[in-house]
Structure formats: structure tokens, C-alpha cells
Predict the 3D structure of the following.
Amino acid sequence: MFADRAKIYIRSGKGGDGHVSFRREKYVPNGGPDGGDGGDGGSVIFEVDEGLNTLTDFRHIRKYCAQDGEQGGKKNCRGKNGADIIVKVPEGTVIKELETGKIIADMSSGNRRQIIISGGKGGNGNQHYATSTMQAPKYAQPGQPAKELNLFLELKVIADVGLVGFPNVGKSTLLSRVTNARPKIANYHFTTLNPNLGVVDLDGSKGFVIADIPGLIEGASEGIGLGHEFLRHIERTKVLIHLVDAASTEGRDPIADIYAINKELEAYNADIVHRPQVIAANKIDAIYGEENPIQKIRDEFEPKGIKVFPISAVSGQGLKELLYYVNELLLQINEPPTVFESEFNPDTDIVVGNEPYTVEFDAKKNEYIVEGPRIEKMLGYTNLESERGFQFFQKFLKDNEILDELEALGIQEGDTVRMYGLAFSYYKE
């Protein structure tokens, strides 16, 4: 069966950790820090592949992970960047966040390649943290973590014209007659299980793309049959051709069929039913007797501005007039196809706060040392002489699990904790 939806998991690469090392060479007894930076993690990139027209491949492979960045090394050596992973999708694929259903990207129109989640940045090595007061920093920045996301992929066919109608009215026959498409044709319900695309070439015009949307039934908008799977492909079309069996070869009423289809379209998406429509009254070669069903259809719909064309998809009668009229409608519309706007940016949803710090015990001085850019910044803008400022700093130490690390090292009440020239006595709350 045609696969137009899929659920997959993606993960970007983690950034490599910065390295902590010091220059140690002969005749250079007090070499400075030379820890290299970590490499960036790989990104997850989606790219349109013209050779694909279904999402079938995602039924077999559901997990896509980019490569992690390598950690930095000694002698200022930077870690290698992780490789990106490129996910190929057919044009018209809408990428959504699985849990919320919000649109991340629409891989159609000019959007052929997009980074969905970026890899984590590599961390800085300890060479970046040397200052006049801290010439031998023993900490480096960890790489940013990987980002992960569950996605829902949905394929919405790109076509200028949607060909709709109940099963067995001749849509596949018409498409094979007027385009280069070669759909399978048989005489049973739901013969077409996937939208077939074809290009209509017209003399003196650039032509257009037409999609044979599989046969609808009443209740399709409520998901009966394969309703939702089919209706989603109509959303991008600019003009609709209603194909009906004017000869009523299966006993169906063509006027009732058109109203039924419009009702399903409106129930699914009210915007669709207000787009330009044309009625193709098919199977005129099978009309016998004095009764003229074509006139009845015209009397019903042409006063509403919907043009009716009697045709025979088998013999080709009336097709030229139909196609040129549809082409004129498209030229009047002159609008780009529907592109679904992004509602969700995975990169901005993940806040990474990973400035480094270290917590160590100095046995010689019998005191605990807490250092790092995060600590230095906090001390820089916190007034520790005020009660409120000191409470704020204590909360910072607790929230960042620095107190937990001190306790893990065995700190006792009354022990000294030193932070950039400031000494504190430790007392447990």
C-alpha cells in the first residue's frame, strides 16, 4: 500500500568535550594550559530526493542518528567534527513534531534542504580559561549535549490540479490519456490506492501537473475507508476536476455524487471546497436514449459558476476543451502552491547551559576549591554583603548541584570552601 505517513526518531551528535592539559616540555617547567577544543556534533538534515514518491523507506528504518564530535586533545589539538546525517524524503513531505503535531518544515516549493536539529557545539579546552588570577585552570567546557526528537512525516502530493470522484468513474483512464502517467486500471472499488501524478503538456502553454486522488466515499472526512489518507493530497491543489459517470453505468446519480464529494471536502478542510472547480461529465459514449443527463448537470451547476464539460476518457472526446479551460483557470490564479508555515523550531527548544566548573579538595591547604567561568560570573554580579544576595548565591550553588558535589567529597561543617580569593565556612542547612 502507498505509504504517506511515518514516525521516526532523530538524534543530532553530541559536541566533544574540551580537554584539560598543560604544556610539559623540557626546559619549559611551568608551561601553560594547552587543552584543545572538542569537535562539533553532526546535524540531522532533511533533503528532497526527486526519485522518491512515497515514505515507504521509513517503515524499515525508523532511527536516524548523526555522529558525535570527538573530544579535544593535548597541544591545542581540536577534536574532529561529527558527520552529519542526511535523510532523503520525497517533495511535499511535511515534518511535524510527534507529540504536539506542530509543523517543523515543509519540504516543498524552494525548500530542498533543511537542518532539522543542529549538532551540539564542541566544548572549549582549558586554554581558553587562563586569566591573570587563574593561570592554571583545571577545568574545560563539556560539549553541548545531543538533541533528540520524535517526528511525524506526512506526504502531501504537489500538484496544480486535483482529480476527484467516486470509485470507477474513470479517473485513472483519464489520467493515462492526458498525461505521461501509467496508473493501473481495473474495474473494482478502490482500484487506485495511491495518488498518481502526471504532467499535462499543452501546445502553446507550459501545461500543469495533475493528481488522480483515489476514489472517495461518503464519510471519508471522518476517516471512513481510506478517507484521511486520500484527502490530505488535495490540500495543495489550486483547481479541482470533479469526474462523474454521466451515463450512470453503475446506477449512481452524478449530481448527488458531486454534492457528496463537496460535502466531504468541506468537512475535511473548508478552504478546499471554495477553490475553482470544473465538472468533467465522463462516459458520454455510453449514454443512450433520448434523456440528456449532461443538460441536467449543467442546469444544476453552471448557474453556480462551475463549468461542465462532457467527455469520454476512453475515446478522448472533449478532453482538449477541458484541459485548455483548466489551464486558463490556473493562469488566472497565478499563485504559488500552498506551503505550510513552520510552527516549531527544535533548536530553540533546547536550552544548553554548560559553562564548566570544578569542585576539588586541596589536601595541603585542607580546603575545598570551587572554580570555573560559571562561578566567576556569578560572583561578579552578586552582592554577597547583602542578605538577599548571599541567599541568592546559596540557591545558585544548590540548584547547580555544587553543594552535592562538596558533600560527595566528604565536606564537614566548619570546613573551608574557597572561590576566587573568597573563603567561606561550610554549614549545612
